[in-house]
């Protein structure tokens, strides 16, 4: 049950694949990578994160993704293609907006996304927001938002697939 935490603001670039048994804590710095994958029980993201490469898994979180700036502030995750969440998503931006920018889709493949009262913006022309998957293996996926707004400026579709749930209000 090892954890990975960065000290200071190290220089990290290129293709980044991080794995830990317990937790990964990203540095409190803005980063841009070719691709990024975090596989841990929990990953903590407190600053904006961008990926610029191609492929289906350019920005991927396996395990819980905790998206929370150290002080209440907007948070932006940007991908040249897709953003994938394979596990729970916990958003705490202090009432500020979580912005996800992608070229094709934002995917909650499994787990529970707790947006709370934080607004969500999904940007990119025609970008889809998929809750659950249409292909095997199909695992339960729930998007929960107590209040706030979802803004999809690029006019993409929200798809709730088999075993997917979109829940509004207190769970």
Give short descriptive properties of this protein:
171 residues; mainly beta; twelve-stranded parallel β-sheet; six-stranded parallel β-sheet; 18 strands; 51% strand
Dominant shape:
globular
Q: What is the number of beta strands?
A: 18
Question: Beta-sheet strand percentage?
Answer: over 45%
Q: How would you spell out the order of helices and strands?
A: EEEEEEEEEEEEEEEEEE
What structural class results from the helix and strand content? mainly beta
Q: Could you estimate the helical fraction of the residues in percent?
A: under 10%
Q: Report Rg.
A: 15 Å
Q: What count of helical segments does DSSP give?
A: 0
What is the average of the pLDDT values? 93
Distance between the termini: 31 Å
In the predicted model, the low-confidence regions spanning at least 5 consecutive residues are none
- What oligomeric state is this? single chain
């Amino acid at each position: 049950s090892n954890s990975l935490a960065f000290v200071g603001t190290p220089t990290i670039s290129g293709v980044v694949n991080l794995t830990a048994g317990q937790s990964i804590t990203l540095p409190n710095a803005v980063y841009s990578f070719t691709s990024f994958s975090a596989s841990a029980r929990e990953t903590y993201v407190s600053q904006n994160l961008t990926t610029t490469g191609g492929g289906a898994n350019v920005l991927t979180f396996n395990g819980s993704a905790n998206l929370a700036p150290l002080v209440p502030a907007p948070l932006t995750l940007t991908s040249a293609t897709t953003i994938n969440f394979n596990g729970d998503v916990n958003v705490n931006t202090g009432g500020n907006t979580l912005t996800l920018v992608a070229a094709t889709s934002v995917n909650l493949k499994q787990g529970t996304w707790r947006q709370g009262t934080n607004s969500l913006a999904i940007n990119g022309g025609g970008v889809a927001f998929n809750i659950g998957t249409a292909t095997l293996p199909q695992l339960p996926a729930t998007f929960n938002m107590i209040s706030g707004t979802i803004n999809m400026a690029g006019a993409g579709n929200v798809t709730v697939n088999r075993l997917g749930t979109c829940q509004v209000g207190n769970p």
